[in-house]
Amino acid sequence: MAALFTGKVLMANREEDEVETERELHWALENKVLLLYFGSGQCPRCRQFSPLLKDFFLRLTDEFYVERASQLGLVYVSRDETEEQQSAFLRTMPRRWLALPFGDAFKRELELRFAVSEVPAVVVLKPNGEVIVGNAVEEIRRAGPACFRSWQEAAELVDRNFRLAEDFDNRSRRSITDPIRRLKYKLDKKDKEGEREGEGEGEDSF
Predict the structure, then answer these.
(1) Contacts of 19 (CB under 8 A, 6+ apart)
(2) β-strands 72-78, 98-99: how paired?
(3) I need a labelling partner for 164 at 20 to 30 A (CA). Which of 28, 31, 49, 94 fits?
(4) How far apart are CA 116 and CA 113, in angstroms?
(5) Alpha-carbon gap, residue 188 to 202, rounded angstroms
(6) pLDDT tens for each residue of 146-171
(7) How many angstroms separate the CA atoms of 42 and 81, rounded?
(8) How many CA atoms lie within 13 A of 94 on its CB side?
(9) 0.90 surpassed by pTM
(10) Eight-state DSSP code of residue 101
């Protein structure tokens, strides 16, 4: 699915950093059912639906609800009128959502490709980019997280025993704890060297 966005830019929700296409994007989207959410924080229908989609996504991916996160990704394609409105809306949504940058011309290409004429719209895609559901808004309203099972089967995902929800943060956690482990190793090594020196001094005193 990362192939759909090759050469494009996505933004990590609530962060200024762009998602790197070659590495981060592959990690974030590959081997997952992908939802493209076309919406707006100002649209009355979207304001009714967005909390349902937020709950739907969290119940499938957040460690508060599930031990292992489902293979599910989401990209928000905004119809907000200003960048500030898009940012304000995304701040109320899950951190794991990705978003097309405000004003990106690729939005129009996606709307045409998936025949999106009104919002809210949720296009459900297989990892290879094929459409599973053209607009899953009513299905999500009616069935909630239960509808993911049928999408998962249709997507024929590679079984990787489902990543743990906290795996999304593994890299940042690893970058923090690795220096601590190395520091502990150095301290332990110094302690052992000190013990050996102490033993040597004891032997010289006799």
Answers:
(1) 9, 10, 11, 12, 25, 28, 98
(2) parallel
(3) 49
(4) 8
(5) 21
(6) 999 999 999 998 866 544 444 444 44
(7) 8
(8) 26
(9) no
(10) P
167 DSSP 8-state letter: G
Write the DSSP assignment of 29-59 as a string of letters.
HTTSEEEEEEE-SS-HHHHHHHHHHHHHHHH
Q: Is the peptide bond before 120 cis (omega within 30 degrees of 0)?
A: yes
| 77 backbone dihedrals φ, ψ, rounded to 5° | -110, 105
Cβ-based neighbour number of residue 20 at 10 Å = 13
Q: Which helix (H) or strand (E) holds 72?
A: strand 72-78
The two three-digit tokens of residue 196, written as one number = 């050996």
Phi, psi (deg, nearest 5) at residue 172: -70, -40
Amino acid present at 79: R
H helical segments located in the chain:
26-29, 44-61, 83-90, 106-113, 137-143, 148-155, 170-205
Contact 148, 70 (CB under 8 A): yes
> How does strand 121-125 pair with strand 131-133?
antiparallel
27-75 residue pLDDT tens: 888 899 999 999 999 999 999 999 999 999 999 999 999 999 999 999 9
- CA distances from residue 42 to 97, 132, 181 in whole angstroms, order as listed: 19, 28, 48
Do the strands 131-133 and 33-39 form a parallel or antiparallel pair, or are they unpaired?
unpaired
